[in-house]
Amino acid sequence: MPELLPQLLSALILGLLGGGHCLGMCGGLMGALTLAIPPEQRQRRLQLLLAYNGGRIGSYALAGLLLGLAGWAVASGPLATLLRTLAALLLIAMGLYLAGWWSGLTRIEALGRGLWRHIQPITRRCMPVTSASRALILGGLWGWLPCGLVYSTLLWAASQGDALRSAALMLAFGVGTLPVLLATGMATERLSRLLRRRGVRVAGGLLVMLFGLWTLPGPHQHWLMGH
């Protein structure tokens, strides 16, 4: 349990500072949802945006739970140390991505393109978004959009070897993505600009990499705990 808090914080930072990538993947949809609602119905606009994001975040948690079950099966065997090492390396790689020093993680988006080809036609049936329930379903479907950052976080979460922990990490990641996407949907650019500042991203990336080094098996863990 002591190591869960830094992991949750890592997931939250990944979502929060990965918002620039999220804008590229989902920003268009957020804009479409906003434009589909009359300006005078601002309360309804917020309700639909929250429902959409709730469905999206819920799909992340579900994916974490399902893939976490596979990770639990591996962690229960002799490959537990290898799985923990993989988790640490993924965390370091994601820190490099957040800091803008390496973007190789985006290459794994090809893994989900086959599944997305089957899901995408269903999303069209939910448009236009005229109710919170429809927005919730659309968000749940859109959560499976191929995204290198989401997939990398999902693999890291699944490598924890605990399905519930994997789901919790993906939930924290999803909550982290909420401010930027919600601010975009509500036409609030100040927060988005702040989170895209290089100094903020580098600091967040370094913190995530530090958690990755702490996760990596070895005697250095005791030194890091002491500092």
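(the above was protein one; protein two follows)
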Amino acid sequence: MADEVSSFWGPVTSTDWCERNYMRSSYVAEFFNTISNIPCILLALFGLINALRQRFEKRFSVLHISNMILAIGSMMYHATLQRLQQQGDETPMVWEMLLYIYILYSPDWHYRSTMPTFLFLYGAAFAVVHSLVRFGIGFKVHYMILCLLCIPRMYKYYIHTTDVHAKWLAKLYLATISVGSLCWLFDRVFCKNISYWYINPQGHALWHVLMGINSYYANTFLMFCRAQQRGWNPKVVHCLGFLPYVKIEKPKTQ
């Protein structure tokens, strides 16, 4: 996409997306793809406050923080369109999926130290290799495989959950990731056509917004399931009547 104003960050060295570059500022390459990460940061911050206030396990605090780091990395990437910043976006994406895999599978993992050690070493090795090699389509395939590894466990949690509101969290998780993926594909496949439209539907920015909401639903559903495992009597309640979160009642012995 051709630049409209001077570029503060220099020539594009990363993957470019279907939004005209530097249309509103010489400091922000893709304006909508940058600001569309803000909802993810705000939702993750709300989830982090809830996790800390109710003293959930530290894994959930780390999970919400990882969502914020990922969103900030994505903002830097789309604001600059530089390869280094793209790596700063993609590497946390993989780390976050490894964290999801740990949270999903750790309750039934008999060798408690083996799994986190393996995932940590895997994440560190990926970061080193990714800093040296530009994967392209290989990164997308790798990330998709990590996502698919989470689905069987999420489905198991869903079918063993009887709470109607918690099941709705899982359904909304599935709906947002499905619609978001369609927006991402539409933006990539039809980019040449979209560039001639009077109004760009900003499919990639919509992907950011929907995935930020999706991550929050996923985190909230996992917090509910984990609280059930710990016997904390979880309930899904709503802040301001629309934003769901998990409220727990821990036994006094805990």
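Reviewer note on protein two: The first helix runs from residue 31 to 35.
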